[in-house]
Specification:
- By secondary structure, the chain is an alpha/beta fold.
- The strands form two sheets. The chain has a five-stranded parallel beta sheet with strand order 3-2-4-1-5, sandwiched between helices. Strands 6-7-10-8-9 form a five-stranded mixed beta sheet, with helices on both faces.
- Helix 5 links the parallel strand 6 and strand 7.
- It is globular, with a radius of gyration of 21 Å.
- It starts with a strand and ends in a 28-residue tail after the last strand.
- The mean pLDDT is about 90.
Amino acid sequence: MTVHFIGAGPGAADLITVRGRDLIARCPVCLYTGSIVPAELLRYCPDGARIVDTAPLSLDEIEREFLAAQRDGKEVARLHSGDLSVWSAVAEQIRRLEHHGIPYTMTPGVPSFAAAAAALKRELTIPALAQSLVLTRVSGRASEMPQGETLAAFGRTGATLAIHLAIHALPKVVAELAPLYGADCPVAIVVRASWPDERIVRGTLATIEALVAAEPIERTALILVGRALAAEDFRESSLYDPAYQRRFRGRDG
């Protein structure tokens, strides 16, 4: 018996990996977060599978589901939105599995920032302008930000920022970043990236609050800030320059 943690992707059911889909298909137990994981993924479950929506459950209750599956010798597909590596609350579940000696695997998923970039049809790193992407958030009820991991600290780098779980704190985001990036810095908010009701709000640090006030956003939104979002007149990468030599190009001169 094994618990398979699976990154279910940002929303669209066909953005799950082939490995993730195949694991769901072979597991007689599926735990998923119904509030943010699309129900369409459950069609991959085998007939007769035990399907449990963990959205209303506590960690203790989820642990009991793992233990029940262990007693019955049944593999578990544990679906989380996006990718498992950030803000998935997987670490605390793994700690309990290890305490009970229950084996587990981890299958990555398409992260929300990648789906948002695809929706915007933008590359988030641009030569000589922005070569770093910072994934961050603001303090919330579920967890506080560590001291030093502030928007201002990240903003001083000039990197593209992908700010998660922060739509409720948009005024704070604008107030902290405008002095660093400039009021005219591009901002894009992608709501429910890759879902059928996906929505994009584009503006600047000077205009984005008014734009959102006109069409309020409640949750499941990613805020992107940085010059790369609207870059047009930029230097091309040397990667495809004819004078740039690399061993895979396979030609001289």
